[in-house]
Design brief:
about 375 residues, two-stranded antiparallel ribbon, about 80% helix, elongated
Length: about 375
């Protein structure tokens, strides 16, 4: 009994110690992250503390010319940085997609860096004007702080600008913008539903005239990147692009899970029930993939073309979680792509495509979570 109690207490103390060490490690990593991100700012703060500690006599120094020179230098750097950074951004836009220019224009980091530079220039000018009545140690402290802080942010801006021309970063930014667009529509629908309880979410989506166009806009950006990637025969970027396209589609479908409208479509002897998401999102997405498949077959290797079939498979497996009726849509498109590959006398694509399509039935989940 005593032994069990001692073991229990030991175990409890050990867990508490591990939690404390884990907390210390997290805080240290966070602090170290700030040091790596703002080394010059921290160095300038240390210099300011030394300056205040030793209480140096700075009354004989005229800071007015120094402040005016710094304001001029910072204004020149600001103009050069934002002008020269447009060159790689324009090259990336022509290489990948022109929506990069829109993302760059609306990027918050650009606004923040511009704001920091502008504030520093304005403060230097104001200090130069009222320099006579201010404490010299305070003026020098402000100068040291802004020099360190601005140049740290300049380094951050450089890293940020380089990331904007990286394909992986571009795909991620487009995905984020697409998610924001989808979330914006979801908020509008919830707002309409709250204002008028008689209007359901299903009905509210009918009032969004530009819903389909907005989602297709971002999917078209992915398609543009894919087309340019195919021209360079870059399998990794092409595969990543298709994955991001599918992520955006899946996110849009997740948002519509509880607000899907169904209608009867007469395709033969008996009408069938079809979800509005099929017409608004799924069919345009599959049509776009089919166009990309044809392009891939004409201008690239078979591996890139098979990634399209793989995307159809992943879409079908995802749709099987919600509505079994929509599962057939990507399967039919995958079969059409296979027939096209056969028509151009391709051997490997049809063979591999049939194996990929076969896996759809084994991986699909026979669940229907859509609410009717």
């Amino acid at each position: 009994m005593v032994w069990d109690l001692w073991v229990t207490m030991n175990s409890k103390n050990k867990d508490e110690c591990e939690e404390i060490f884990q907390s210390i490690r997290i805080k240290f990593n966070k602090f170290w992250g700030y040091i790596k991100k703002y080394p010059l700012t921290i160095l300038s703060i240390l210099m300011i503390l030394q300056l205040l500690y030793f209480q140096l006599n700075l009354e004989n120094i005229n800071f007015q010319n120094i402040l005016i020179a710094l304001a001029t230098i910072f204004a020149t750097i600001l103009a050069l940085v934002f002008t020269l950074s447009l060159i790689p951004i324009q090259n990336a836009a022509s290489m990948w997609t022109f929506s990069i220019l829109k993302i760059y224009r609306e990027d918050k980091t650009n606004y923040i860096i511009f704001l920091f530079f502008s504030i520093a220039i304005l403060i230097f000018i104001l200090l130069a004007i009222f320099e006579q009545g201010l404490n010299k140690a305070l003026i020098l402290s402000i100068i040291l702080f802004f020099i360190g802080f601005i140049f740290d942010n300049l380094r951050i801006y450089y890293i940020h600008s380089v990331s904007m021309i990286d394909p992986q970063s571009i795909l991620e930014k487009i995905k984020i913008e697409a998610f924001k667009t989808i979330d914006g529509f979801d908020k509008i629908v919830n707002s309409i539903n709250k204002q008028n309880k008689n209007i359901t979410k299903q009905e509210a989506y009918r009032f969004l005239s530009n819903y389909q166009q907005s989602i297709n806009y971002w999917l078209n950006n992915f398609s543009e990147i894919y087309q340019k990637t195919v021209g360079r025969n870059d399998l990794l970027v092409a595969k990543a692009t298709l994955n991001y396209m599918l992520k955006v589609l899946e996110y849009a479908l997740e948002k519509r899970k509880d607000s899907t409208n169904y209608r009867l479509v007469h395709t033969g002897l008996l009408p069938i029930k079809e979800a509005d998401i099929a017409k608004d999102i799924i069919y345009p997405f599959c049509d776009r993939l089919k166009e990309l498949f044809v392009l891939s077959c004409k201008s690239s290797t078979e591996n890139i073309s098979l990634e399209i079939i793989e995307t159809y498979k992943n879409l079908a497996i995802f749709l099987s979680k919600f509505d079994l009726e929509t599962v057939n849509i990507p399967i039919h498109y995958a079969k059409d792509c296979t027939k096209y590959a056969q028509s151009i006398n391709s051997i490997e694509i049809p063979f591999q495509a049939i194996n990929i399509i076969f896996h759809i039935s084994t991986n699909s989940q026979n669940e229907n979570n859509f609410r009717y």
